[in-house]
Structure formats: C-alpha cells, structure tokens
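May I ask for a single protein's sequence together with how it folds?
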Amino acid sequence: MSHTDSTSPILSTRVRVQNDENGDLISKLPDKILTNFLSKLHIDEAVRCSVLSKRWEDLWKHTSHIEFDVNHMIIPMTKLLHSRALFPHPGFFLSKSKAEEVYRYGSVVFQLICLHSGDISSCRFVHFQNSLSIGEVGIWVDLLVERKKCLKDLSLKCLPGLREVSKLEISKPRFRCGVSDCLGSLEFINYTIYFGYAFENCKRLKTLKLKWTHLDDETLSGILKNCEALESLSLIHSTGLARLIIRNSKLKVLHIHALWVDELGIYTPNLDVLSLDSTRCLLQNVSIYAPCLLNTFRSYNYYILFARMSSFEEERSIL
C-alpha cells in the first residue's frame, strides 16, 4: 500500500470531523440576523433566497427595509413569480410592450407589499414615469403606510421617460390624508413639485432630500413652512429656483449642490453643518446668517461659487 493510500482514510476522517464541527454556520444564525442580511438586497434578490431552503422561504417577508427597483424586477422578478406560482395567470406577463411592462411592475409591487408580513421602517421605490401619471405610486404608498405603521423613511425615484429628465407633477398629490404624517425622512428624485401644500401633512418630517427636482421659490417657501420639524435639507441639482431663501429656526444641516440662483439667503440660527458645492450666485446677492456655524462653515469652490456670510440683523461681514 502506498503512503498516499495509507493516509487518505485518516485525511477523510479529519475532513468529516471538521465538517461536523463547523456545519452550516449561516443556517445557525437567528432569523433576525438573516432578515437583516436580506434587508440589504433589492426585493427581487431577497425573494430569490426563498429557494435556498424551507427556512428561507418566508424570511424576506420580515425584512425591515424593502427596495422596489424596476431595473431589477421587470424581467428576473416576473420569471421568479412564475416559478413560485404567486399569480394565477402566468401568461399575463408574456407581452413585451412598454405599457404592459409598466402594468406588470405595478402588479408585482402591489402583490409583494400585500405578502410582506413584518414591520418595515424604510422603503424605496424606483419606478417608471407612467406609474406616477396613472396613480400607481400613490396606491403603493397608501397601502404601505396603511399596512406598515412603523414606516419612517421613504424614497421615490422616477426613471426618465422620453425626455432626458422626467418632470412629474405632485402638485395634486394622490396620497391619502395622513400618509406623510408618520414619515421622518423623505426623498424625491426626478420629480417636479409645484405647490408646497404637497407637504402639508409632514409635521414630523426631519429630513428632506430633493435631487434633480424642479420647483420654484414659492414651492420651497411652502415646504419650509409646512415641515415644521425639519432639521436636514438637501437641494441637489435642482432647477426652477431664482431666489433661494431659506428661513428655518430648527434646521441643523443644509446641503446645496449644483444650483444656479439670482439670490441666496440663508437665515438659520441653529444651523450646524452647511455644504455649498458648485452653486452659482453673484457675491453681492449672497447673505448667510448662521451664528452657530462660525467654526464649521466650509465652502467647496469650483470657480462658480461666490459666497459671504453676513449678520442678518447687523448687516456686517462675519467671514
């Protein structure tokens, strides 16, 4: 018998013993940790994990964060739903037309919200332009808030349609009364906002992010008035603003990025953090009153940013 032959049974025994000791470490983790892992995935990826074992089959239904992204879901998600027989008519998904893709995505989102049985603290929707225009987005948000009382953070991103950047109106929001009252953080991407009363129920909102949005001066003023508890505001690549005037006594964090305005006025006595990045405005039209910001103010100058800080009450330079 060769040396290799004589030792192979011993090696095999060692391997078996090691496997028995280690086992499947992932399966030994509690459900709470596993659902935390799944919360980091897009919803279609989380649902796919159902095929791993019987234990994993319903774990996605208890994730604390859920993300609906049309880029991930249109093709792979519907194939999965066919295999899991969640829908009674698989042939419904066979059409390749754009209109039916939109309707298909809306149906999948609605079904998954209904199937989810745990508490959701945050949710993100990446949707088609059509889903907003036909009122589907409002239906999803209404259903989500009705079923998930713990929802605090909501993000809505509209994918560009035929135009380079979709300008979508929420001037007449289709959310039911009280929907936004529970939210602590709200984000809009690629939206057009025409009236501040769209935020009239955001009494508890502390964080608002507006990215690639189109809104005018009156709308922003209305938003600041309605969001009484607002502590953090981000205006990133937003258009439509001429006089960017921000008056808020509770605001602590302000991010302004890539804006071009005629006048910039920031009057925030409790502001701690101010980020001005690539924002264009004439020097004589800039006034910033933020006494708590004296040791923390930073300006990122990309040749088009002109800023000064002055006391709103005493009209004197403080920087």
Remarks:
- The mean pLDDT is 76.
- The first strand starts at residue 65 and ends at 69.
- The first helix runs from residue 3 to 22.
- Residues 103 and 131 are 8 Å apart (CA to CA).
